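Exercise: predict the structure of this protein bound to adenosine-5'-diphosphate.
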Amino acid sequence: MLIVQKYGGTSVGTLERIENVAKRVAKTKDKGNKVVVVVSAMSGETNKLLEYAHHFSKTPQRRELDMLLSSGERVTAALLSIALNEMGYKAVSMTGRQAGIYTDDAHTVARIDKIDTSSIKKALDEDKIVVVAGFQGITKNGEVSTLGRGGSDLTAVAIAGALKADLCEIYTDVDGVYTTDPRIVPEAKKIDVISYEEMLEFASLGAKVLQSRSVELAKKLNVKLVTRSSFNENPGTLITKEEDIMEKPLVSGIALDKNQARITLRGVKDKPGIAASIFKKLADENINVDMIIQNVGHDGTTNLGFTVPENELERAKQIMEKMHPADHLEYDKNIAKVSVIGVGMKSHSGVASKAFETMAKENINIEMISTSEIKISMIIDESKSEQAVRALHKAYELDK
Ligand code: ADP
Ligand code: ASP
Ligand code: MG
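Solution:
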């Protein structure tokens, strides 16, 4: 079999853990498989590098950030390869460029355009274990790019898809995908099988166990995706097509995203084209706007509120202050998004009202709401967000 394995930050967080990963990789190789390994930076490393950059600037050049951040993954790739060679295996480490990962030029949030697998294939044919530095690629102008936070998952899925691998395993520090973050709710249950669609909701609504774009790509390329722990032999969670899943629960889980910030514009002129101009400008700058609320004020103006990822707030702020679309601009980082997810919602009513009742019982104010066929999201005060997750998890009996 051809297997792609990805090891996340905690799994390669110390030299002993890199050694443990080397042993796991060696075992997979010994079974006669071809193995490509994708690694993250050691845990905390990417954040540390970001802090270094912010020591000098609130808004560092994105090209420079990519030069900086891509280094973390190179370190672990080289170390793992050295460890494997020392154990008597032939291994070779590769940067994103050496692995043939071509991206667009949206620095820090680049998209993969294509993968030239020739170097990886050549190394595999020479019976080598290939160790790829995750989270990075190269633009057509030869600039280093990175794929957004959590992007090593995307590297793994993209390589698995390009190589038509038999399996893509994402190794992390929990046993798989749970009904909610097990660090917040210890009673959370592990999910054995989940559809790409639901996993995509989980991921894009904040369950960082898998990066959302990696799930999207796995679905598109039909990659057999499993997430499991690098610290034990438990079977993990299989992510697959909805039709392959027998039992579909009404609600599958609760997600929490604390990386949210809100911008409120008060006194926006009420005329056609205003919203278009604001959101086009943000989109041009690759800032992802999520929830939007508009309401009419009493003096012929409107109030416009919307959320952006917290780590994009500084840039969004600069854009807004330059455009000056409203009399008053307000920024709020202390919000979080709590979401209830389940494909079963498509065919059942009452799911949303239960969420609102639960918030009412907990005396938590809901500031914004958005819904789709398979999810309900609420913006609430960040300090109450974990309480909300626990209450919702219980209300939908996910601990049973
Ligand atoms: P890695 O460094 O291996 O990529 P991440 O920290 O990105 O790992 O993702 C794993 C973490 O995701 C877990 O430690 C857990 O706290 C968190 N998490 C959030 N929601 C969930 C969920 N529904 N199921 C499992 N883990 C979750
Ligand atoms: N090291 C990067 C991050 O922390 C990429 C990853 O871990 O997947 O976001
Ligand atoms: Mg991750």
